[in-house]
Amino acid sequence: MGEFRDARLGDWFDLLGDLLRAPLRAPPLDDIAEGMRRSFQPVAVVWSESLDPLRGQIWQQPHRSPPLERWRADGTFGRDPLIRWYARTADPIAQADHLVPAAIAPRRDLEMWTEEMRPWGVEHEIAIPLSMEWPRHKAFVIARHDEAFPASDVALARRIQPVLAGLLFQVQTLARTPEPSLGNTDLTPRETAVLQLLSDGLTAAAAGRRLQVSPRTIEKHIEHIYVKLRVDSRVSAVRTAMRAGLLDAGLEPARLPSTNTETPDAGRAGSLLDSRRASYRVDALDGHSVRIPR
Q1: Main-chain phi, psi angles of 275, to 5 degrees
Q2: Residue 237 and residue 161 share a domain
Q3: What sign results for the dihedral spanned by CA atoms 33, 36, 42, 47?
Q4: Which of 144, 177, 210 is the last residue of a domain?
Q5: Which end of the chain has fewer beta carbons closer than 10 Å to its terminal beta carbon, N or C?
Q6: Ramachandran region of residue 65, left (φ > 0), alpha (ψ -120 to 50) or beta?
Q7: pTM score above 0.85
Q8: Is residue 35 in some structural domain?
């Protein structure tokens, strides 16, 4: 395999690093769709949970609603070369519509499909399947107008595909796993007070001054808290205690200092893409089956 170089891979590593900061029990579809938008500059991103494009979500720009129900009823979706490709071959590779051979997508059907899609700014697509388990075919589809996706885009889609599939597998696995036990949550009043001060952003030294004890005593309390809550960091301890109702209700801390230095802004994790989501509308769609013409 030749060496693959694409600067956009770095953006995907950054995104996945943010997403994997905590266990995922639901697919981070909005974050991945935004990553697709930034990498491929499509006019629409679709998350499909079967071979029926009506089952899933659509992030599109501009804010227009194509006649999806009519397309399903009159067989238009059955002319989509990518739907035909996966229905006929079950090949899981990320695929571009212009790479589907004519034996699977006849030229006449392809022209009819393109003509129907063109008014909606969609002339070319890449599908990135994350699961081929029938009938729950899960895939992202990115669409654009004018020219077909270049080879570099197809190569990038195929490079990120196994990582995104692994992310989905993690989500599915954790969704079937019971939430971990919090262990012994019978914190002493002093341990609760220490944890509350940590949630307010105080260092061990500052908490010691507030409680009129030494920083070393605060550290011992923190060690006991870790054992009881079965955690290994102050951020995890505070979040676990909040979920268990052990701390006063309120916002999670924006900063949680460590013993000797301050950590980066914890509230920033996972929010790097939020500022660009406003331009995309998300539609929740229900669907049934797609007729594939023979």
Answers
A1: -65, -20
A2: no
A3: negative
A4: 177
A5: N
A6: beta
A7: no
A8: yes
* CB-CB contact of 251 with 39 (8 Å): no
Q: Which two tokens stand for residue 228?
A: 């009881």
Tokens of 244: 């268990």
Q: Is 166 helix (H, G, I), strand (E, B) or coil?
A: helix
- 242: amino acid identity, one letter: M
Q: Please, is 268 exposed, middle or buried when counting C-beta atoms within 10 Å of its C-beta (0-12, 13-18, 19+)?
A: exposed
- Residue 31, φ and ψ in degrees, nearest 5: -65, -45
13-58 pLDDT, tens per residue?
Answer: 999 888 887 778 788 999 999 999 999 999 889 888 865 555 668 8
- Structurally, the chain folds into a number of domains equal to 2
- Write out the residue range of the structural domain in which residue 258 sits: 189-268
Q: How many CA atoms lie within 13 A of 91 on its CB side?
A: 13
**Domain match, 90 and 194 both:** no
Q: Are 46 and 129 within one domain?
A: yes
272: tokens are 């790097």
β-pair partners for 21? none
Eight-state DSSP code of residue 56: E
Whether 273 is covered by a domain: the verdict is no
DSSP state of 68: H
Among residues 160, 167, 171, the alpha carbon closest in space to that of 35 is found at 160
